Amino acid sequence: MTLTHQDLTLTVERTINAPPEQVFDARLDPALLRHFMQPGPGMTTPRAETGPRVGGRFDLVMANGSDEMRQGGVYQVIDRPHRLAFSWESPFSVEGSTVTLEFKPKGAGSHIALTHVRFPS
């Protein structure tokens, strides 16, 4: 059996020491999103722009030294503070790639589940 990008789904779950409302809002605030989206050691996110409404765009520039990678997407669902879904566009993404974040209270913090559907292996 050969897997294609249509078959691939990635789910990552984390607990964050902040209430769901605060974590949800951080994903829509450009200043906070720059810190939220740190792809790896030595990398930065020098630019983040958001249009936090269904149909609005977000755009990011992630950098590793002088190398930059642009990412972005269109908000599809904004259900504060429970669910956020958006298309995912990057130099490596495929058409129809989507990300869904689900936020649930867990004690004084939040349980976050990220599901990314349709991406190259």
UniProtKB/TrEMBL annotation:
<dbReference type="InterPro" id="IPR023393">
    <property type="entry name" value="START-like_dom_sf"/>
</dbReference>
<comment type="similarity">
    <text>Belongs to the AHA1 family.</text>
</comment>
<dbReference type="Pfam" id="PF08327">
    <property type="entry name" value="AHSA1"/>
</dbReference>
<protein>
    <recommendedName>
        <fullName>Activator of Hsp90 ATPase homologue 1/2-like C-terminal domain-containing protein</fullName>
    </recommendedName>
</protein>
<dbReference type="InterPro" id="IPR013538">
    <property type="entry name" value="ASHA1/2-like_C"/>
</dbReference>
<feature type="domain" description="Activator of Hsp90 ATPase homologue 1/2-like C-terminal">
    <location>
        <begin position="17"/>
        <end position="120"/>
    </location>
</feature>
